[in-house]
Amino acid sequence: MKFTDDQIADIGEEIIKVLKTVYDPEIPVDIYELGLVYDVQISDDADVKIIMTLTTPNCPVAETLPQEVKDKVGEVEHVKSVDLELTFEPSWHKDMMSEEAKFELGML
Fold first, then answer.
1. In what residue span(s) does the MIP18 family-like domain sit (predicted)?
2. For labelling alongside 101, which of 17, 29, 77, 107 has CA 20 to 30 A away?
3. Which runs of E-coded beta strand occur in the chain?
4. H/E stretch holding 99
């Protein structure tokens, strides 16, 4: 089944809502606001590719956090498959956080 651009946009909004429920356990801010999600691509078949990073390569949740993202995004209605690519290029830095995340952490 091919989805329309509007349907894909709706799926994208649902994916972002789900990403905002995943937290870095060391920082009380969700991974989306932290800027750990670099890209979300959705094909017209609703195959999803997520490119994300972690705050550090040796992050204690390096094994579990990407799996949690894959599992949760895979539960979004109409999502057919989830391909998650973990990258450390560019490496994450605090300037990638949203204003909301910086405010939450007292950095503004």
1. 13-83
2. 77
3. 37-42, 47-52, 81-86
4. helix 99-104
